[in-house]
Amino acid sequence: MRTAHSFFEKPVDPLDFTAVKIGLASPERIRSWSFGEVKKPETINYRTFKPERDGLFCGKIFGPVRDFECICGKYKRKKHRGTVCEKCGVEVIESKVRRERLGHINLASPVAHIWFLKCLPSRIGAVLDLSLKDLEKILYCESYIVLDPKETDLKKNELLSEDKYQAGLRQYGNNTFRVSIGADAILEMLQGIDVFELANYLREALKNTTSDAQTKKLIKRLKVVGAFMTSDNSVEWMMLNVIPVLPPDLRPLVPLDGGRFATSDLNDLYRRVINRNNRLLRLGELNAPDIIVRNEKRMLQEAVDALFDNGRRGKTFTGPNKRPLRSLSDMLKGKNGRFRQNLLGKRVDYSGRSVIVAGPELKLHQCGLPKLMALEMFKPFLFNKLEERGFVSTIKSA
Question: What residues have CB less than 8 Å from 210, skipping those under 6 apart?
Answer without folding.
Answer: none
